[in-house]
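Example record

The entry below shows one chain as it appears in the dataset: sequence first, then C-alpha cells.
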Amino acid sequence: MEAVAAIGLASNILQFIDYGHRVIVLAKELSKSGHETTYSNAEAAFVAREMRELGLRLTKDLPTADLTVDEERLCRLARKCNLLSDKLLLLLESLEVRRLGTNFEIIRAVFRNIRKRKERDQLQADLDNYRAQLNVQIAYMSRSDFARKLEATLRNTTMSQQDILYLKDNVQKLSQKPAVDSASVTRFLREIQEIVEIPLRQIAILHAFRYPRMYDRFDNVEPAHQRTFEWLLHGPLDHLTNYQKSHADTENHKDSFSDHDHVTKNDQAKHQKHREFVEWLREEINPSAVNDVLTPHKRSIYHIAGKPGAGKSTLMKFLCENQTTIDYLKEWVGEKRLICAKAFFWRLGEEEQKNLAGLRNCLLHQILTAAPELIPIVFPSNWESDYTNLTCVPADSVFNTLLKDGRVFEKYKMIFFIDGLDEYQGRPTELIRKILGWTAGNSANFKICLSSREWNEFEVGFSGCPRLRIQDWTRDDIQVFVQDSFEGIGHLSTSINKSDLNTIANVVVDKAEGVFLWVRVVLAAIEQGVLNGDDFQDLQRKTNAFPAELKDLYQHLFDSIPEYDRRKAFEVLLFALHNTYEDKPLLQYKFLNDFVKNPDFAMEMPTQPLSEEEVRRFTQNTSRQINGRCKGFLEIFKPKKEYYNGDEHVRLMHSTAAGFLASRRDTLKSYSNDIDVFDLACQSFLALAKSIDSEGFYSTHSQGVWDFPGQAGCPFIIGIDRIICAFDDEHFARPSTKRLLAFLEQFDRVIVLRYKERATSPQTIPLGTDLITRRTPIISFVTSCRVEVFPGQIISILAARSLFVGYFDTGGLYELRTLASESKARKQITQAVLSGISGCLGTGRSIRMLRVLFEAKISPRVSLELLHGDDIITCQLWSWIFTRIIFTELAWEPGLWSLHGPDIQAEERQYRLFELFLQYGAGEDLCLMFGPCFEVIGANRLIVQVSVCESDGTLVPPNRGLNGICVDYQLDIVRYARTRGGVLSFREVLAYCFPRTYPRLFALLDGKSSTSSTSDDAESMPVLFPTANRYFEETPSDSSMPYFFQENRPPKYCKQCLAHSEKCFTDFETKFKDGKLGRPYKPKQPSTYDDDD
C-alpha cells in the first residue's frame, strides 16, 4: 500500500473511532439519565428560555412610540435575542429522544445531535454574542439613566460639596467597570442602587420640604458668652470646695452643702435647678410611675420661660451645641440612637420662619437627615415614585405619621429644641395643642425642650411641665459678662480706673434683673461714653438713669438721640425697618447720605467698581456713624456669605427693638422729611450694584437653581425681585410707575454689562417660576418650575411674575406685540405670569396682567411647557384657569386680595375671569364629568369623582394633581349633573354658576359681544364643591389629606361601584330606608388643617 493511501486510511479509521466514541458516550448519557435530552442541551435550552423571557419583558416595558435612540437599539437587540432563542429552542426540541426506553430512539437521537452539532454551536455563539451586547446596552442605559437623575437632582437640590463629590466619584468608578455578562450587570445595578440611587432619592425628598432660610435664626443668635449658662449642665461648681466638686454627682451631694457655711442658699437652689434639668435629660419617663398631676406627656416637655431679652434663645443655642447635653441624653437613649432637631421661630423672618408648616418642615428635614432610613417609612409613595419629579410633600400628615409609627421608635429616641414660641404667627393655643399632641402617648421615646415669653397661654398650657424661669438664675452669668466686657472697655480710657468700673458694673448687674439684652444695650452706651471721654461721674449718672424695663430702656435710648443727629439717625432706622427679615450690606448704608444730597445720585453715577481701599474706607466711616447715632438699635456683623471682600451686614439688634421702632414709624418719618423709603431702597441698591463687581454678588450658580424669591442664590437678582415685589408695600408711599421703570432700565444696563463680562458663550440664567397648583382655602402646594433666560430677559421675567402691569403696558419698557407669535420669550413671559397669578387668581392685578397678554395676541388657549427638574410639564392656560375656578373656593383665598387689586369686588372674581377669557376666544371645549361613584368603607358615605375633561371626554392635560376631586353625592351640582347624564357641558356649567348673567357669557362665546360688562352686571358664583363636602383620605396617623384625582388613582379606603349610573344612588338611598345602614354620613368641616399651611 502506498504511503499516502495508508495515511488516509489511518485518518479515516481514527475519525470513525472518534465518531463511534461520541455515539457511545451520548447513548450512555441518554440511557442512564432517563431524560429526553443531554445535559449540555438542557443547559442551552435553559439559557435560551431565559433570554427569550428577558427580551419579551424588555420590549413589553418600553413604550411603543417616541423611543430614544438607545431604546430603539435595545429593542432591536431584544428582538434578535428572541429570534435566536426561538430557533435554538426549536432545534434542541428536535434533538430530544422521542420515546424513552427504546435503544433505537436513543441511537436516532444521538445521530441527530451529532449531525446538528455545528448548527447548535453557531446558534449558541450568536445568542451569546447578542446577550453580551444586550448586557452592555442595559448597563449603558442604566448608567445614563442614573446620570440623568443625578444631574436633575444636583440641579434642583441644594447639596454640600462633599455629597456632590461622593456621588460623582462613585458614579465614575461604577462607569469604569466592565459589564459583559448577566452577573456583572446585576452586580452593577445593585451597586448603583446602593451607592447612588438611594442617596439621590433621599436628597430629593429632603429637598422637597427644605426652605431657604431654615436655619437663619439659629445662626444669627449670639452664642453664649464664655462661662455663662454652664451651670445648668455642669452645676455651679465654681462656688464649691474641692470636696464638694468630687461629690457633686453622688446621690448624697445635696447634704454636703449644708455642712459649709460659705455656700449660699442661692447656690443650693441653683444646683438643685441644675440637677432637675440634668435628670430630665437623663431620665426615662415611666407613665405608670407619674402621678395624675404631672401627666407623662407633660413630663417629657421642659419649658424655659422668661422676659424679652433674658437670653432664652442664647440658652437654647447653648444647649443645642453643647456636647454635654448629648452625653446626658445618651444615658436616656440607652442602646437606641439619638435624633436631635432644633427649630427657632422668628417674627421678623419670612413666613416659614414663623408658621407651623415651617416648624414641621424644619424638624422633618433634620430628623430624616439624621436617619435617612426612615424616609421609606414616612414617604412610601414618594420613595417608590420618580424622585426627580416630586411635586409636594404633605408635611402635616408625614409628621404625624413619623411621631406615631411604632417602627420609628424601635431604634430611635428623639428630642426637639423649639425656641421662641411667642414669635409664632398664629394663635398660641393652637401651637400648644400641637406640641402636647406630639408627646401624648409617646413620652418614653420623645422629649421637647422649648422656650417662650411668660404669656398666660404658655403658662397655662405648659403648667405641670418641668420649668426654668431664666431671669431668676442668670445674675452670676450677667456678672461674668459685664466683668469681661469692662476688661475691654477699661483699655479705652485712662481716666477710668478698675475700681470705678467695678462700681458701675455692680449697678448694671443689679438693675439688669436677669435681662441680657438690657445689659448689652447699656454696655454699648457705656462704651460709647468712654470713647467720648466721659469720666466716672458721667458714666455713673448715665447708668443710674437707664430704666430697668426693656421697653422703657428703648424709649430712653430713643429719646437720648441728640436733636441734631435725629434726622440722619432716623433715616438709617427707617431704612433698617424696610424688609426686616433681610440683612443689608453695610456699604449700602453708605449711600444714604448721597441720596439725601441728590435723590437721583445712583442713576447718574457710573457703573464702575470701587477699589478695596475705597470700600474699606467707606464701610469703616459708615460703621462709626451707625454706632454713634443709632444708640445700639442696630448691630454690624459678618455674614456667612460675603457679597464682596471684607463685607459686613447690618441688622436690628433684636425683634423687640424692631417692634419698638415700628410702633414709632410716624416719628421717624417726621424727622426724615417724609423720606421716600422705597426710592431710597432702589437708589442704594442700584448704587451698590454699580459699585461692586464680585462673584459673591452676581454669581447665579452659588447654590444651584434659584427656585424661590428669597432663596439663597444670586443676591443681585434677588434684590431686584424684592424691589419689584415691594412696589405695592403698604408701608411705603406708592411710587409712580414711571419712577420704577426708570430704576429697572438702569438695572437692565447693569445686567447687560456685568453678565456680558462673565459670559464666555451665550449664557442662560435659571429663574424660578413656581406654580401654586393645588389650593383649598387652607392648603396649597407649589410645583417648582424654572425658565432658562438670557441676561437681557431677567427683568421682564421678574416683572411678569410680580404682575407688574406697567412694565408691559403702553409706555412700559417691554412691548409684547413686537415678539414673534411663537417666540420662546413670549411663552416664558406667559409662564411667569401664570406663576404670579397662581397665588392671587382673580384679583384686579392678575386680571389686568392677563388682559395685557391677550391684547398682545397671546391666546388664552396657549400651551406652555414648564421645566420641572428634567421633566417638561405641559399646561394649557385656559384649562388650568378653568380647573382652578371650578375646584377652588376662590372667594375665600386668604391674604392676597388687598395687595393685588382692590378695585374688583371679591364676589365678582370668577365672573370676571370667565368674561375675560371668553372675550379673547377661550372657547367651550371643556366640561365636567361626574363619576365613577365610591362607597367609603365604614362611613355610610357615597362620593362621586368629578373631573375636568375636554368635550370628547378626554381628561385635560395633567394639572399637577387638580384634574378632579371626590365629593358627596348629595351636593346640588351633583344632583343637577345626574339629570344631564353625569356630564355638564361648558354652557351648562356657566348656566348653573351664573343663572342671571349667563346669556351675556353665551353671547361672548358666540362672538355676538366683545365688550366687558359693568360692575352692576357682574354676578357672584356659588362655591360648587365646599370643603365640608369633599372627601379627605384618612391616614393611620389620624391626619388627613384632600383627595385629588391623579393618574387614575382611586381614593383610598373606598369601594368603587361596579356600574356608575343612577342605580348607584337609588340603591344607596334604599339601604337607609330599609334600615340596612345606620345613620347617613353628615359632612363636617375637617379640622386637621392649620391656616398657616
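Notes for this example: The two ends are 107 Å apart (CA to CA). Residues 6 and 368 are 86 Å apart (CA to CA).
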